[in-house]
């Protein structure tokens, strides 16, 4: 009985603790009502969808990651410029051509600036383009399938950085070189850079229906570094603006030598004028060698074509097409507001933000008020084109985006903050710290005539103490802010993958409605597809063996193969016969020197296997597909190189 | 305290009883060996008719098709179309005349209503969830789920017509 009493007392005590706990909790949330409100703003209940997609570049991962806003949840990593063993991208026979370049097969890339296609100055959610900095390339990702469907290499370019921004009807996606180089490439002393190197700004036309890319022309500019770019829109549609640094044309110790000039330039390119010039036969074709890789969704196969010439335009040949706007000081971001009137130069070594006026620029051009020229390109007077200055806004401005209410938001790397200011009055309205050393920022619909407001997120370069430590290397941090009110409100801190340099975001509906669920088997035109059991076969052609294999829950057909010999090159052409949403199957075989394959419903992929050892070797499905997934397996018998074993295969019966 | 003791006793007794029940069951013989000398395994005791052999012509299943009538004559053109669809979309798991991954469709219309068949083709996930017979079939076939091949209603209907010819 005493025990019982003790128990009761103990229980009462525990209960009391709990209740008091609850009390203290509720008092905390009462005093911090704002904090709980913030949590609600980013809370997306289980099973609910986010309202926005965010596409964040992976930097040195070479890929593009897909996030939901406001939750900050990562949904997918889309392989673009790097081999991706998770799906077999860049390893499968079908996708290897995607990574072909004039330098051969490049397994890795440095992806930078995603930009979503537009119609009439509004984000249309059909395609997203992204540039590769190291081996200059532009990729197109189809937002119906979230697959990379095209990659074009950019010749005469190096450090493809002021890319891949689209014009307001996606007429062009541009690719500007960060590093100037000899054009054409040749063996010459580095010290002779100045006056001899050139910077190519490429205008890649985008065919409206399928988005196919084609380099229409390259403008060969002076040997500066072209850092970022943005299209004109509205009144300034037809123009493109590129920020420059190293107008000193230094080739060594740029840290010092490229920071000498008080002002660098924003280059204003009238691409409509050059387009007209080119359409009338202007410019000249020069020999080149660059890869154009196209993935065909019906054959599930990519082809790589080497193109041997490119049209180049010398800006001095097209009067009135190119002007230089003096801009302090080594500007990074070059951003155009939604109306197209203002061009912001984010001079990263300046404390002020410079804003140019498009109207004033046109006036100065009309009145031919030039301060001089650079290699024949007219330089306008700084004062003539200046619209205003955001004074002492912060240290190290990098990038500006705009909302739908006439406000601008600029990141400051050195002072690690984001600053909100008013377009037109140039007054600072608000500032918020970032954690830490912010690079770029994104507002959904940012690079368009119609920003979608509500959210803004910043991508930081330094993480330090934001998350649990994971050794010396940390994922970068991003912060999401609510920008619907007068003051920016920090909502969420979330890790990003790789090194995000830039992002594009938009409301989810347009993409969600078009998103594909599976590939139709009927439309599968793969050269080696086995579209039903009747097509299953194994064919020998010398030491090449082609296995036409099918997958369905939960077996391979065939699942027993004999007659393979050491030294054979075995092509497993595998078709997933499923016709339902989210039923991929995988394929892995012991000794596979490439990667597994992940095959979507209705899709065919090919893995090459070169067995080196005699034996009976298993293969299996890597994707947990059903309750019988563990049973989804098979065997290949490998005989000695000189064996006289005929090819035999089966499913459900023994090979006799 | 006395009440507590009593309660405990009751609990223990209940536990003991429920445990004891199983002891009487004989262990099934399991044996592994090479194929040349297959071990005799006792045939499983008949636990009633397997789901695949059960006849239920009144059950229409659960799904998009609630009622349909078949013509007395088989529509040969439609059946030929159905044979084509079956070959493309179903043969990975079904053989017309023998059990494979899934059951054979031969004689299916003697065991199932046309509505049930249509629903099983058009919404297998829903059927396995909501139809007792479909659930039983899934268990009989080792939990191997029937894949939804996203056939149109017309395609499914043609497959059904083809089944009538088997």
Main features:
heterodimer; A: 656 residues; mainly beta; Immunoglobulin-like; eleven-stranded mixed beta sheet; six-stranded mixed beta sheet; 46 strands; globular; B: mainly alpha; Cytochrome Bc1 Complex, Chain D, domain 2; 6 helices
* Total helical segments of chain A: 7
- CATH class annotation of the largest domain in chain A: Mainly Beta
CATH topology of the domain at 74-165 in chain B: Cytochrome Bc1 Complex, Chain D, domain 2
Share of β-strand residues of chain A: 35-45%
Question: What's the Cα radius of gyration of chain A?
Answer: 29 Å
Major beta-sheet overview of chain A: 11 strands, mixed
Question: What features would you describe in this structure?
Answer:
- The complex is a heterodimer of chains A (656) and B (166).
- By secondary structure, chain A is mainly beta.
- Chain A has two domains: 463 residues, YVTN repeat-like/Quinoprotein amine dehydrogenase (Methylamine Dehydrogenase, Chain H); 118 residues, Cupredoxins -  blue copper proteins (Immunoglobulin-like).
- Helices cover 11% and strands 43% of the residues of chain A.
- Chain A has seven helices and 46 strands.
- In chain A, strands 6, 7, 8, 9, 10, 11, 12, 13, 14, 18 and 19 form an eleven-stranded mixed β-sheet that branches.
- In chain A, strand 7 and strand 8 form a beta hairpin.
- In chain A, helix 1 crosses helix 2.
- Chain B has a domain of 92 residues: Cytochrome Bc1 Complex, Chain D, domain 2, CATH 1.10.760.10.
- The N and C termini of chain B lie far apart (74 Å).
- Chain B is globular, with a radius of gyration of 23 Å.
- About 7% of the residues of chain B have low confidence.
- Chain B is mainly alpha-helical and 166 residues long.
């Amino acid at each position: 009985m005493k025990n019982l009493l003790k128990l009761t007392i103990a229980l009462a005590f525990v209960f009391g603790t709990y209740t008091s706990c609850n009390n203290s909790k509720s008092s905390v949330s009462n005093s911090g009502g704002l904090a709980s409100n913030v949590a609600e703003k980013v809370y997306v209940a289980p099973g609910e969808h986010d309202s926005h997609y965010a596409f964040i570049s992976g930097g040195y991962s070479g890929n593009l990651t897909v996030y939901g806003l406001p939750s900050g949840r990562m949904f997918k990593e889309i392989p673009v410029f790097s081999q991706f063993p998770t799906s077999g991208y860049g390893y499968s026979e079908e996708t290897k051509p995607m990574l072909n370049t004039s330098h051969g097969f490049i397994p890795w890339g440095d992806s930078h600036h995603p930009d979503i296609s537009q119609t009439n100055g509004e984000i249309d959610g059909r395609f997203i383009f992204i540039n590769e900095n190291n081996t200059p390339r532009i990729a197109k990702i189809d937002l119906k399938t979230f697959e990379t469907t095209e990659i074009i290499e950019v010749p005469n370019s190096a450090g493809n950085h002021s890319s891949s921004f689209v014009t307001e009807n996606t007429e062009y996606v541009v690719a500007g070189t960060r590093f100037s180089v000899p054009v054409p490439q040749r063996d010459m002393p580095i010290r002779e850079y100045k006056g001899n190197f050139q910077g190519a700004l490429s205008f890649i036309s985008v065919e409206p229906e399928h988005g196919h890319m084609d380099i229409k022309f390259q403008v060969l500019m002076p040997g500066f570094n072209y850092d970022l770019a943005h299209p004109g829109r509205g009144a300034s549609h037809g123009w493109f603006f590129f920020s420059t640094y190293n107008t000193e044309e230094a080739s060594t110790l740029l840290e010092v030598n490229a920071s000498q000039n008080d002002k660098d330039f924003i280059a204003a390119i009238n691409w409509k004028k050059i387009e007209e010039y080119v359409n009338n036969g202007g410019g000249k074709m020069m020999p080149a060698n660059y890869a154009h890789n196209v993935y065909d969704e019906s054959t599930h196969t990519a082809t790589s074509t080497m193109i041997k010439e490119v049209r180049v335009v010398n800006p001095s040949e097209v009067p009135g097409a190119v002007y230089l706007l003096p801009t302090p000081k080594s500007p990074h971001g070059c951003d155009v507001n939604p109306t197209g009137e203002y061009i912001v130069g984010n001079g990263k070594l300046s404390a002020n933000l410079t804003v140019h006026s498009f109207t004033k620029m046109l006036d100065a051009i009309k009145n031919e008020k030039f301060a001089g020229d650079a290699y024949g390109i007219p330089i306008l007077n700084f004062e003539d084109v200046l619209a205003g200055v955001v004074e002492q806004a912060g240290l190290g401005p990098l990038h500006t985006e705009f909302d739908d209410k006439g406000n601008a938001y600029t990141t400051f790397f050195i002072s690690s903050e984001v600053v909100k200011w008013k377009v037109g009055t140039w007054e600072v309205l608000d500032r918020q710290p970032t954690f830490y050393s912010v690079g770029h920022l994104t507002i959904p619909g940012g690079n368009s005539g119609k920003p979608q407001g509500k959210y803004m997120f910043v991508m930081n370069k330094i993480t330090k103490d934001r998350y649990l430590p994971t050794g010396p290397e940390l994922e970068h941090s991003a912060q999401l802010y609510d920008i619907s009110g007068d003051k920016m409100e920090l909502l969420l801190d979330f890790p990003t993958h790789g090194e995000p340099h830039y992002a594009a975001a938009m409301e989810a509906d347009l993409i969600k409605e078009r998103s594909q669920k599976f590939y139709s088997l009927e439309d599968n035109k793969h050269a080696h597809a086995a579209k039903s059991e009747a097509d299953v076969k194994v064919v020998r052609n010398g030491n090449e063996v082609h296995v036409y294999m099918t997958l369905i829950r939960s077996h391979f057909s065939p699942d027993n193969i004999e007659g393979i010999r050491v030294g054979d090159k075995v092509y497993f052409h595998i078709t997933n016969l499923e016709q339902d949403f989210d039923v991929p199957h995988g394929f892995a075989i012991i000794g596979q020197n490439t990667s597994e394959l992940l095959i979507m419903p209705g899709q065919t992929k090919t893995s090459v296997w070169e067995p080196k050892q005699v034996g009976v070797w298993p293969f299996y499905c890597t994707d947990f597909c059903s309750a019988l997934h563990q049973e989804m397996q098979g065997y290949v018998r490998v005989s000695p190189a000189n064996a006289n074993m005929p090819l035999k295969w089966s499913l459900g019966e023994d090979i006799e | 305290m006395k009440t507590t003791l009593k309660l405990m006793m009751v609990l223990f007794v209940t536990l003991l009883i429920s445990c004891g029940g199983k002891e009487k069951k004989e262990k099934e013989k399991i044996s592994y060996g090479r194929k040349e000398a297959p071990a005799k395994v006792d045939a499983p005791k008949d636990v009633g008719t397997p789901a695949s052999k059960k006849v239920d012509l009144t059950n229409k299943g659960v799904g998009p098709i609630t009622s349909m009538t078949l013509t007395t004559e088989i529509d040969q053109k439609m059946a030929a179309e159905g044979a084509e669809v079956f070959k493309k979309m179903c043969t990975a798991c079904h053989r017309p005349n023998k059990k494979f991954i899934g059951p054979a469709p031969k004689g299916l219309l003697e065991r199932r209503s046309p509505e049930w068949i249509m629903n099983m083709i058009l919404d297998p996930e829903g059927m396995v969830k909501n139809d007792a017979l479909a659930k039983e079939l899934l268990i009989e076939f080792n939990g191997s789920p029937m894949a939804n091949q996203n056939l149109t209603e017309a395609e499914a209907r043609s497959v059904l017509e083809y089944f009538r010819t088997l």
